[in-house]
Design goal:
Length: 283
């Protein structure tokens, strides 16, 4: 027989839950805290055989050295332009395609949905050679435009899968009512469906933005000119030819590169959560 939980048992269970949650948060925050600690240490502390978690003599010398050695500001601007363009183009293409996949449940639509899921299993190495050849034919190698096209192609499967679920959650009766009032298919999509898909569109755009901001492999292969390189590629310049990293400036640059995406998520975390949950259940 089940016994009633006493107040002491409930308090102990709640304390255990909070302790586990705190431990999980510390586990997630550890890389960022380690970067911050390393970025504020002097070269003498970094070379100490007994490093401390908290810098004994915090300094911003690593930050100044990072900006002096590498064009971090210009690389961050390149990453920002690429990420914004990727998010915008991905949403513009994925929204009508996801609507068609959700409303027209034909064999072709089901086959397209299956292909979208299967394409996520393709590794980067398998895609880079055909993408490189296509971009070479289009003369888009070493171009931010070509990099945006690659990121859009890579982001579309996830965007389609995500937005199709949101489109299925929109009641078809609303579109039928708009059709009765004389609205055409395009007008119904732009005036009725898209506003209801706003949480999903926002979440999809944010994930496309963060994916493009953090991506390294495609940018490394496709961009050759130093003034076109994105921030993840420039961060590798702090590692020498023999694999020895300039740890202080590298940690400072990596920490600063992480802040924009963290700030972006902090500002729109509620919209991301609602976008992920909307469409997850059926009425």
């Amino acid at each position: 027989m089940r016994t009633a939980r006493t107040p002491r048992t409930r308090r102990a269970a709640r304390a255990g839950q909070y302790t586990a949650l705190l431990g999980y948060l510390l586990f997630l925050a550890f890389p960022l805290l380690w970067l911050l600690s390393t970025a504020l240490k002097s070269p003498r502390e970094l070379g100490s055989p007994h490093p401390a978690w908290i810098p004994r003599h915090p300094t911003l010398a690593n930050v100044r050295q990072a900006f002096a050695e590498q064009p971090l500001a210009h690389a961050a601007l390149n990453s920002l332009l690429v990420a914004l363009a990727t998010a915008a183009v991905t949403v513009l293409i994925a929204t009508p395609m996801a609507y068609v996949m959700a409303r027209h449940r034909t064999r072709a639509a089901r086959a397209a949905t299956g292909w979208v899921v299967v394409s996520q299993a393709f590794p980067f190495v398998l895609l880079i050679i055909p993408l490189f050849l296509v971009l070479k034919r289009l003369r888009l190698i070493d171009s931010l435009t070509g990099l945006v096209l690659v990121y859009v192609v890579w982001s579309l499967p996830f965007a389609l899968w995500m937005l199709a679920g949101h489109a299925r959650a929109v009641p078809a009766e609303l579109e039928e009512a708009a059709a009765v009032d004389g609205a055409g298919r395009l007008r119904t999509l732009t005036s009725v469906t898209v506003p209801l898909l706003a949480p999903g569109i926002a979440a999809t755009a944010l994930f496309a933005f963060v994916t493009a901001w953090n991506e390294f492999f495609f940018a490394l292969v496709l961009l050759k000119s130093p003034h076109r390189q994105t921030l993840p590629v420039v961060l590798t310049h702090f590692i020498g030819a023999e694999g020895v990293a300039d740890l202080g400036p590298l940690a400072a640059a990596a920490f600063l590169a992480t802040l924009p995406s963290l700030a972006f998520f902090a500002l729109v975390q509620r919209r991301i959560t609602s976008g992920l949950l909307t469409g997850a259940v059926k009425n």
